[in-house]
Design goal:
The complex is a heterodimer. By secondary structure, chain A is mainly alpha-helical. Chain A contains 15 helices and no strands. The longest helix of chain A is centred in the N-terminal third of the chain and has 37 residues. Chain B has seven helices and no strands. The chains are: A mainly alpha, B mainly alpha.
Chain lengths: 539, 227
């Protein structure tokens, strides 16, 4: 019944070429994982530098122009090179075909192409950094982006190229889910990770082309002055914001939906209980994906948008809270009377519920028109964004990496160090970002390199100092994770095929799986979370 | 999927599905492979529609803001050449569809013929476009800050030509892309890669070409015929 263990996808075939030209979704997933984690380290370096600059009031070691470049690079790298591809391209690539009982994604060559396009996009972005970087913020708002001195053209072109990589992945996943499911696997037997990844893929395919055309026009605007974003030539800079957010708001759901997808699986598997409200969790992913296209205007409440549009956008923004709330209630209900194992992946899943609830609720504050006037462009927004993106997506990503690590590499990591690192991450994260809510509501604006001479400088300094201290703890947490995960590859205990007792197909094959995933043709006999009916040994 | 494959083997006495050299290892049958590629190409066409959708949106907004300028500026486009190009592209849509039909009927020579006519139409389209563009260049009817023609009345007429060149330029690039892909398909057909059992690339090239045609069918009235 199980795949043979000697020749797995990691050990056969061998050689650098066999990796660089591989069509195996598992290897491509690992190649993505490596680059994505490098991007995360680079983005994290900029983040720590920014936090150190803000540790005290007054200019420490970054002048304002360098500071502007650094926060731009932090944002651009984290958004475009790390978080958008993170879960889909790395874990999704690895898990999706396995979970469907397929041998590969529908288009393996397109999958490899998407990795190379990612490399190309990253190279262009790096070129831009080397040539002097940009200071526009990751949003590239015109008219500043058409006038500022930096390397805007190469940076935006890099992002444009990265968009193709994202579209390739999304397109591939949609077709894979539609056409590559094992016999017996109906839509309602899909693991919830697949549902979430599918909803994400829909957004990747529908939203990214609009960013593509917007960035192309921005490049044309800067290079040849076509005038459509330039008010001096009869153009409209707010139009750029509309187009940018038409992609970039759905893009935050590209970032968070895969996180929710991971957490749905983690909660069910590690509490060994049938997930509560399967269909509602599945539909709510699709609902978030679709509603996400109708709320972009909430980024522009104070950009001169009409009051009526703002009201409509605000109203629809509140609606997003409903499918999100449905998910959270279903996860919590799943936990109720479950046999919860508090191992590392589960700790991250539980942390996700707490942190994402805070991040989501503060998003509702920001969606309220009156309140947004006060909170807009303050640290409150920074805190909200990091609670959903880092407290949400990154925490879920970490949970997912730990959960599937035994399957990916066939080794167990140190559970003790996993829990210790979790404490550092959880405490460090909250220390860094929770007080930024207070900081923002007290009026500290974002994107300032120095806050001396403000009315509340003393108060701000206390909050900022605490936040920077938290960032260091967070950094230590990531260092611990890096060390024990790498160490596990060399001296980790050999992982069994199904260490957590999951019921989905990826746990039925060997750890690590053979090149073609299964040594037999998998046929689905039970639902993905039928812990009440099926024993993990019988999948 | 396996069952269908076996049935076909039984009826024809030879292995049609599993044994075809074009069947990739991770698919069960040619049918599954064909359906997957088809869905993939349709999704790709969706991304194309959204890419152009952005430009159509810009067009709508700026036309709503400057309706008179758009009508004045549109007078400077050559309706006759635009109309000829429209007919050329519609005709090429017919020939590319006939190419798919011929290969379904196992007539690869006819397929090659139809594909070459299609590519020829694409080239004709680009040549005509070249003459249009060079005329615009000559008259200073250029996008944004390169616009030097003082005869066009209305506010900010350069915006019309920014949008004209962005839309037709991006469309032109897609025509070139279509020529390259259909050229590759033609070569493969000549080498006998396709038959009634496997003709997915011919059909997909046709799908893409219809979209390129369709976008022009919207561009023509919106840019040339609004006066």
């Amino acid at each position: 019944m199980y795949g043979s263990s000697e020749k797995n996808y990691l050990t056969y075939p061998t050689g650098v070429k066999s990796w660089l030209f591989t069509l195996d979704h598992k290897r491509i997933g690992i190649m993505y994982l490596v680059l994505i984690l490098l991007a995360f380290a680079a983005g994290g370096f900029f983040a720590l530098t920014l936090r150190l600059e803000l540790f005290r009031s007054g200019e420490q070691f970054l002048d304002q122009d360098t500071y502007n470049k650094f926060f731009t690079l932090h944002g651009a790298i984290m958004v475009f090179l790390f978080i958008i591809p993170s879960i889909p391209a790395a874990l999704g690539n690895f898990c999706l075909p396995l979970m469907l009982g397929a041998k590969d994604v529908a288009f393996p060559r397109l999958n490899l192409a998407s990795w190379y396009v990612y490399v190309l996009g990253a190279a262009i972005t790096l070129y831009s950094v080397a040539m002097g970087a940009v200071d526009t913020g990751w949003t590239f708002y015109s008219p500043y982006s058409t006038q500022s001195g930096g390397e805007v053209i190469s940076m935006t072109f890099g992002v444009f190229v990265l968009g193709f990589s994202s579209i390739f992945t999304g397109l591939n996943f949609i077709v894979t889910v539609h056409k590559m499911r094992a016999p017996g696997m109906t839509w309602y037997n899909l693991p919830l990770f697949v549902w979430g990844t599918y909803a994400t893929a829909v957004i990747q395919v529908l939203a990214t082309p609009v960013l593509g055309i917007t960035l192309l026009l921005l490049i044309l605007e800067r290079a040849v002055g076509i005038g459509i974003f330039d008010p001096a030539m009869g153009g409209d800079p707010v139009l750029f914001q509309h187009f940018f957010w038409f992609y970039s708001h759905p893009a935050v759901y590209i970032m968070i939906l895969p996180g929710m997808a991971i957490v749905s699986d983690l909660i069910a598997v590690h509490s060994h209980k049938k997930i509560f409200g399967y269909k509602l969790i599945a539909y709510s992913s699709v609902a978030i994906a679709l509603l996400g296209f109708l709320v972009w205007g909430h980024h522009m409440f104070i950009s001169g948008q009409s009051e009526f549009s703002s009201m409509v956008f605000s109203f629809i923004t509140f609606f997003i809270g409903i499918p999100t709330g449905i998910k959270i209630f279903n996860w919590v209900t799943t936990l109720y009377k479950g046999q919860i194992s508090l191992n590392t992946p589960m700790l991250y899943a539980l942390a996700f519920i707490i942190l994402f609830t805070i991040g989501g609720l503060t998003g509702v504050f920001l969606g309220a028109l009156g309140l947004d006037v006060h909170l807009h462009d303050t640290y409150f927004v920074v805190a909200h964004f990091h609670y959903v993106m880092m407290g949400g997506t990154v925490i879920a990503f970490l949970g997912g990496i730990h959960h599937w690590w035994p399957k990916i590499f066939g080794r167990m990591y140190s559970e003790l160090w996993g829990r210790i690192a979790f404490v550092f991450i959880f405490v460090g994260f909250n220390m860094t970002f929770f007080n930024q809510f207070m900081l923002g509501s007290q009026g500290m604006p974002r994107r300032y390199h120095d806050y001396s001479g403000f009315y509340k400088t003393d108060l701000f300094e206390r909050y900022h100092g605490f936040s920077s201290f938290g960032a260091l703890i967070l950094g230590v947490g990531f260092a611990i994770i890096t060390i024990y995960l790498i160490a596990s590859l060399f001296n980790g205990k050999k992982a069994s095929d199904n260490p957590w007792g999951g019921l989905t197909f990826e746990w039925a094959t060997t750890s690590p799986p053979p090149t073609e995933n299964f040594s037999y043709e998998p046929v689905l006999k039970h639902g993905p979370y039928d812990f009440d009916k099926v024993l993990p040994e019988d999948i | 999927m396996d069952n269908t494959a076996t049935e076909v083997i039984d009826i024809h006495g030879e292995e049609h599905h599993r044994g075809h050299p074009a069947l990739a290892h991770h698919f069960h049958s040619m049918e599954q492979q064909h359906e997957s590629v088809k869905l993939g190409v349709w999704l790709f066409l969706v991304t194309e529609v959204l890419l152009f959708g952005g430009l159509f949106c810009f067009y709508a907004i700026y036309r709503a803001w400057n309706p008179e300028m758009f009508i004045n500026a549109n007078e400077y486009l050559d309706v006759k050449l635009g109309a000829i190009n429209t007919l050329v592209l519609i005709f090429s849509s017919l020939t590319v569809a006939l190419a798919t039909r011929s290969i379904q009927l196992d007539k690869p020579k006819q397929t090659v013929g139809f594909l070459i006519v299609t590519i020829g139409c694409a080239a004709t389209f680009l040549v005509i476009k070249y003459f249009e563009y060079s005329h615009k260049f000559h008259d200073g009817l250029l996008p944004g800050k390169f616009f030097t023609n003082l005869a066009v009345e209305g506010t900010n007429p350069h915006i019309f030509f920014s949008i004209y060149f962005a839309m037709t330029g991006l469309h032109g690039l897609h025509v070139v892309g279509g020529m390259v892909f259909l050229g590759w398909v033609t070569l493969r057909t000549m080498k006998g890669a396709y038959s009634s059992e496997y003709y997915t690339p011919v059909e997909m090239g046709g799908l893409y070409w219809h979209l390129v045609d369709l976008i022009w069918i919207y561009l023509f009235p919106l840019l040339y015929l609004i006066g």
